[in-house]
């Protein structure tokens, strides 16, 4: 098994993250700030990547990461509430938990 194969299952397995803050930007667009659960670390991401956000009992959606990759203590997403899953994700309050898979996709680089 190569090193890349050993890491791949971790990216595909859901990880619980804590909702730190949900900020309303417009009538249907929200910024979701997530942090690691106590005793855990967030994965490192690069610009252009996305995560699969999972709301328990509702479903999963791909959301682009919109935060700064140099802020290792949080992952930020900007989400437009257009369906059942996106509405459920942005309806969380600080302290709630959601599941995240990723980061996935390729980075935009020079």
Write the layout of secondary structure elements.
Blueprint: H1 3-12, E1 15-24, E2 29-36, E3 50-55, E4 59-64, E5 75-80, H2 84-90, E6 97-104
Explain this structure:
By secondary structure, the chain is of the alpha+beta class. The chain is 15% helix and 40% strand. It has two helices and six strands. It is globular, with a radius of gyration of 14 Å. The termini are far apart. The model has no long low-confidence stretch (mean pLDDT 89).
Low-confidence spans: none
Instruction: Tell me the count of domains.
Output: 1
Fourth-tier CATH superfamily name: Translation factors
In which order are the strands of the major sheet placed? 4-3-6-1-2-5
Distance between the termini: 31 Å
Report the CATH topology name. Answer: Elongation Factor Tu (Ef-tu), domain 3
The CATH architecture would be: Beta Barrel
State the gist of this model.
It contains two helices and six strands, in the order αβββββαβ. Strands 4-3-6-1-2-5 form a six-stranded antiparallel β-sheet.
List keywords for this structure.
single chain, 110 residues, alpha+beta, six-stranded antiparallel sheet, 2 helices, 15% helix
């Amino acid at each position: 098994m190569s090193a890349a194969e050993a890491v791949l299952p971790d990216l595909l397995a859901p990880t619980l993250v804590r909702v730190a803050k949900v900020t309303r930007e417009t009538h249907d667009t929200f910024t979701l700030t997530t942090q690691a659960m106590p005793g855990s670390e967030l994965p490192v991401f690069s610009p252009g990547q996305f995560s699969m956000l999972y709301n328990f009992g509702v479903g999963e959606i791909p959301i682009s990461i919109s935060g700064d990759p140099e802020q290792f203590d949080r992952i930020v997403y900007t989400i437009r509430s257009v369906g059942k899953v996106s509405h459920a994700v942005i309806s969380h309050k600080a302290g709630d938990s959601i599941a995240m898979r990723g980061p996935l996709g390729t980075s935009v680089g020079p």
